[in-house]
Amino acid sequence: MSIRIVLVGTTHPGNIGAVARAMKNMGLNDLALVNPRYFPHEDATARASGATDVLDAASVVSTLSEALTDCVYVAGTSARSRAITWPSMGPRDCAERMMLEGKKGKVAAVFGPEKTGLHNDDLDLCHTLLTIPTDPDFSSLNLAMAVQVLTYELRVASALDSGPGFESEAPPATGDEMEHFYDHLEQVMIDLEFLNPTNPRLLMRRLRRIFIRARPDKNEANILRGFLAAIDRKKESS
Ligand code: SAH
After folding, report:
1. pLDDT in the model for residue 235
2. Is any ligand 1 atom within 6 A of the Cβ of residue 111?
3. Atom from ligand 1 closest to the CA of residue 76
4. Which of 16, 74, 78, 147 most suits a substitution to test ligand 1, by most atoms within 8 Å of the C-beta?
5. Distance 188 CA to ligand 1 centre (A)
6. Is 81's pLDDT higher than 90?
């Protein structure tokens, strides 16, 4: 299965167990944990019920980008709308999109810490924001319940015939390839004094948004890297 559920900074180990159970109910087993406060933990095992195999196989990493290295499409969840607008979807549309993208490579849904939710820096690594519609005055679901809603929709979407998927000459660039490109782009813009390194944030976020919309494939990402390398060479020789 090409779908990964990623939990960032989970505080309560019981929620990790409940997520494992929600996933296994819907036929998913790829769980990644970014800096969980307690794991492994007896509360996680207890709340997983029979889904301890999902917990045992979970990968534990220290940054979100490590959990997304091989991913070609990422949805980041949020209960609230954000100051700077990300493209946003509901769980049904998002599940269909994830199934479609899953034909091309690994896709992931990222869930945030119980109290604070995902940081904007986490959402920078995502192609879309996913918000589960709720009563506007009480919008924050329990973490495992949010996972359950999405994984149920993924199960429903997996039964739909979504056709042959996107036609493109090369597979999409992975998270890792795009992160290298963004690092390189930032460095080149600093070298050219187009970007002020003391205040780089908003410009990089807006540029990321362009490439998130464009979804470069591997060949296109290589062209962009090649272009940046040519600028580097020119600058060194001048
Ligand atoms: N105040 C936080 C809520 C954190 S709840 C926020 O605004 O995001 C913990 C996690 O559960 C969230 O990070 C998100 O992954 C998920 N979640 C809770 N309610 C959600 C909703 N309505 N839509 C999408 N995800 C939700």
Report:
1. 86
2. yes
3. 15
4. 78
5. 36
6. no
| Contact 22 CB / ligand 1 (< 6 Å) | no
Choose which CATH entry (3.40.50.300, 1.10.8.590, 3.30.450.20, 3.40.50.150) describes domain 175-237: 1.10.8.590
Which DSSP category does 172 fall into?
A: B
Q: Report residue 111's pLDDT band, with 50, 70 and 90 as the boundaries.
A: very high
The model's pLDDT over 24-33, given as tens digits with 9 standing for 90+, comes to 999 999 999 9
Q: Where are the domains of the chain?
A: 3-160, 175-237
* CATH class, range 3-160: alpha beta
Does residue 134 come out as left (phi exceeding 0), alpha (psi in the -120 to 50 range) or beta? beta
Tokens found for residue 168? 């493109």
pLDDT classification of 12: cutoffs 50, 70, 90: very high
* Residue 161 three-state SS: coil
Q: pLDDT digit string (tens) for 141-162?
A: 999 999 999 999 999 999 875 5
Ligand 1, closest atom to CA 110? 15
In whole angstroms, give the CA distance from residue 92 to residue 158.
Answer: 11
| Residue 173 CB neighbour total at 10 angstroms | 24
Cα separation, 155 vs 157, whole angstroms: 5
Which of 114, 144, 145 has its CA nearest to residue 19? 144
Q: How far apart are CA 27 and CA 43, in angstroms?
A: 22
Whether the bond into 172 is cis, omega within 30 of 0: no
Decide whether any atom of ligand 1 lies within 6 Å of the 112 Cβ. yes
Please, what sign has the CA dihedral across residues 145, 147, 142, 53?
positive
